Amino acid sequence: MDYSILLICLLGCPVVAAIAMALLPAKATPRGLFEAIHVLSLAVVAVSGLWLVASVFAGSDIFALGGWFHLDGLGALFLGLIAVIAPATGLYSLPYVAHDVADGKLGPSQVKQYYVFFSLFVFSMILAVTSNNIIMMWVSVEATTLSTVFLVGVYRTKLALEAAWKYVIVCTAGVAFGLFGTLLVYANAADVMADAHQAVFWTSILPMAPALDHSLTMIAFVFAAIGFGTKAGLFPMHTWLPDAHSEAPSPVSALLSGVLLKCALLIVLRFYILAAANVGAGFPQLVMVILGVLSVGYAAFEVYRQRDIKRKLAYSSCENVGLIAVCFGIGGPLGIIAGLVHCIAHGLTKALMFCVAGNVMMKYHTRDLEKIKGILAVAPVTGVLFVAGCLALAGFPPFAMFVSEMAMILAGIAADALWLVALVLVALVVVIMALVTMITGSALGRAPEGMARKDVPALALVPECVLLALVVLLGVALPGPLFGSIERAGAIVMSYEDEYPASENLFEGALAALAGDEVEEEVSE
Amino acid sequence: MFGYPLVNVLGACLIITSMLVVLARTGRAAAWLYSLQSLVLVAVLASLGAVTGSTELFTWSATAFATKVVLVPAILLFTLKKIGDEARTDLPPKLNPMKSVALVAVEVFVCFVAVSGIDLPTAAEVRPTLAVSLAHFFIGLTCIVIQRSIFKQIFGYCLMENGSHVTLALLAPQAPELVEIGVATDAIFAVIILAVLVWRMARYARTLDADDLCELKG
């Protein structure tokens, strides 16, 4: 099987779908045709994406188009997120858009706009995680912004347009920093490599990383962390995130929060690997810890303060992206694995919660949590999903985020960063309070007078149930192949340190080392 | 006055023209001045091509002429025409001209200090222009922050992008053609999307004042 052709099909399918839909007249084309093309395209993305991910998990390393595209173990994890969450949110879009059309919020041209840009958005994210050309990486991140602007502003209200404007101006300006960082790395690499044309490829730069100029690499990493960190929603560059997430249609918010933020983190991680190989892990880890702690600390209190359900979830995304940055900042095999597991766990959980928030909005026609009461009484399935989603987001067992947060705490202890663990735990307690309050205030309580007991359409509930099942599955027992691939991805990140070869069992080794340290301490006592 | 000194003199002209874009009173004037500043950028690329012998840079200067000197200003002038009387585009900036000039001067100084620490053989001869390109980037950011008119904020993005373009040319004159095309195409799409959004804002919200667009705070 030639996987490079499959990779090109994966990239091409959403683009072809977007072009096909763009060519159709908005008013004369029935909505069903847009929906059919949309579903078909996402089905191809799901099948080909998961196929590629499985082949990478089985040990393949896929290159395509002369090395411009590359799928390694690290990229495959994020491609897996896209291949699961994009079809789930895409399917959820059908009843959601239909509801908005019935409500008069969306006209024919806006429906067409929604489906065209949804496909382009999926394409740009696939491009971001599979690009091996560092300039193309930047172009793809910029493309994610440009393709989502009209999804955020699809309602054409003043607030939606305000959110879209802030989103595009903050992200394009922020990502321009990323371009500067990328150019510095390229120029630096072109100077030390025999063939300057190879200096655009991440896989060619990485082996040469120790030879790059140290000060330029450090400057480039800071620029990349600020630039792509803006897109990831790290504090203090997060300002676009709550506005865009709250004003966008819920399936788009789910995709933004569940996948896009992680794609941006992947690019930061690529630069982290280069910087660690060049100047040692200490500098990039320090930058990540600073950005991570600030994000977690600030966002945790905002999660508690917000009354708007989608803004609350948006700040929760900022907090969780901060947690991932803290994990990478702690470093070591445990920290890196904790960060990668948290990317997956949070991606799935947040996609679920934004879709559930969409159910709530379809039912209550408001985002104000003060007016949302008794979800369990009026929409029982949505209510159960809401409660489970809140508990999952709060990091309770048996959900996936419990595993990643426990791994993060262990990583902090292993790295002797107890103060860091303490700070993060305080923030997590605040978030738990906020989410438990959300359950008691909105899932329980007395439903508004006259509201009929009827759940949202089954087509909206099916993708949510699938997402919840995955969140529980990953919380109860990470499947062996997935965990093996996470370890391999962790080994790619740790490749700058000779003591962690790619074949090593990183997680068990790190846990054994941690247990060994404790035994030694007991013996010495 | 030829060779690298010419590149550095043109670099200084970039700062002057970008200041003029930031200080322009009307959107129309800003568009024309941006076209002028892009012409200087084309001259920088061409002179750098002549000095380094890089044929890629001559191609870049041709594409920069088509996209930045002609296409981007045309898109922005067309947007102004489309907006018409639906909203005010010529809002005064939040900072007066004297303070803006002082701020830019500080940025240029800081960038010169930062660049003096870089030790890269390709940048040795063009260190002043490298500092200018970095400063250019921050002048663009300043333009976004100080402008009240969101139409004029687009020029901030354009200036940032021009700064990145010059840096790319200075540090990587042999970069493959496709890299430059990728960056330039992305910038064109960004300007089109920003222009459409500004036009929609004028049409649906009847304002282009950034101070009116703060209902989503908090």
What do these coordinates show?
The complex is a heterodimer of chains A (525) and B (218). By secondary structure, chain A is mainly α. Chain A has a domain at 281-525. Chain A contains 20 helices and two strands. Chain A has helices at 3-23, 31-57, 73-102, 108-130, 134-152, 158-192, 202-208, 214-232, 240-247, 250-279, 282-305, 309-330, 332-364, 375-378, 380-394, 400-414, 418-443, 458-476, 480-493, 506-524; strands spanning 62-64, 69-71. Chain A has a two-stranded antiparallel ribbon with strand order 1-2. In chain A, strand 1 (62-64) and strand 2 (69-71) form a beta hairpin. In chain A, helix 1 runs antiparallel to helix 2 and helix 3 (73-102) runs parallel beside helix 13 (332-364). Chain A is globular. The N and C termini of chain A lie far apart (59 Å). Chain B has 218 residues and is an all-alpha fold. Chain B has one domain. Chain B is 76% helix and 0% strand. Chain B has helices spanning 4-23, 27-52, 55-83, 97-116, 127-146, 150-171, 177-205. In chain B, helix 1 packs antiparallel against helix 2 and helix 2 (27-52) packs parallel to helix 6. The longest helix of chain B is centred in the first third of the chain and has 29 residues, at 55-83. The chains are: A mainly alpha (525), B mainly alpha (218). The A-B interface holds A 133, 135-136, 138-139, 142-143, 146, 149-150, 153, 156-159, 161-166, 168-169, 172-173, 176, 179-180, 183-184, 186-188, 190-191, 196-197, 199-200, 213, 215-216, 219, 242-243, 246-247 and B 117-123, 134, 137, 140-141, 144, 150, 153, 156-157, 160-161, 164, 167-168, 171-172, 174-176, 179, 182-183, 186, 189-190, 193-194, 197, 200-201, 204-205, 213-216. Chain B: One of its GO terms (cellular component) is plasma membrane. Chain B: This is Hydrogenase 4 membrane subunit. Chain B: InterPro entries: HyfE-like, NUOK/Mnh_C1-like. Chain B: The chain crosses the membrane at residues 6-24, 31-51, 57-80, 101-118, 130-147, 178-199. Chain B: It is a multi-pass membrane protein.
